[in-house]
């Protein structure tokens, strides 16, 4: 898979009855691809994978694949309990996804051998290649990533921990295996704040939740990042991303909730978030509107 551009993690829109609004989802995904997304990751973290049934996750992927129409890769979420992850992996393959992002297992943590076995079981469940997500209950050692890289179906590593020293060792360990088709992603929340450092250790790709609600700002940052325009990149960090992160950090789960709120403020009625996440208060939404306006003004 070749990714050229920001990695887009769409939200999952819900209608007033709480059901998935597939027409709105298709519009949301299509708009993101038209705006220059380099890949689409439906039913993942921003898409509230944790709150979707297996059938719902499959339907989200199917709708996203249709909206993308082959223009960029589609990488579907798969994780949680192993049985659920396997069912979702097979359904994503049937829906036409190009790969899977293996999210952490549910509740329990296991030793490294168990984490490797978890990824390998999901990889074996379908014909799709997989990207491992290093986060939460799935924190892989350098040796584990080296072992997984020996499996040709494991094609990427997404870091959501933020330990740059370990991430650097992972990059080098995979290089030592001779793999040249392995992708590395910065998957930290609001990855724009750390991407300059990640590029320095050999992880040039990053996911952008902000792209889902304000693609013009995310694209301006991406262009500054690619072009080496540090003055513009830092101006966007100071004027938009830093206050956004300060608001995000006030409440657990706001990495998703604020994106949906931002889309609603922009006129796309994507609904609220499912429990256990909560939506922002009116005062927080007002602050978000100010932050979005400041970001657009910088563009």
What's the arrangement of secondary structure elements?
Blueprint: E1 7-8, H1 22-34, E2 39-40, H2 54-68, E3 75-78, H3 82-95, E4 99-102, H4 112-124, E5 130-134, H5 142-149, E6 154-159, H6 164-176, E7 183-186, H7 195-200, E8 205-208, H8 210-213, H9 215-227, H10 230-248, H11 254-265, H12 282-298
Parallel strand pairs: 1-2, 1-8, 3-4, 4-5, 5-6, 6-7, 7-8
Kindly summarize this structure in a few lines.
The chain is 49% helix and 10% strand. The protein is α/β, with parallel strands linked by helices.
Can you describe what's shown?
- By secondary structure, this protein is α/β, with parallel strands linked by helices.
- It is built from twelve helices and eight strands.
- The protein has helices at about 20-35, 55-70, 80-95, 110-125, 140-150, 165-175, 195-200, 210-215, 215-225, 230-250, 255-265, 280-299; strands at about 5-10, 40, 75-80, 100, 130-135, 155-160, 185, 205-210.
- It has an eight-stranded parallel β-sheet.
- The longest helix has 19 residues, at about 230-250.
- The protein is globular, with a radius of gyration of 18 Å.
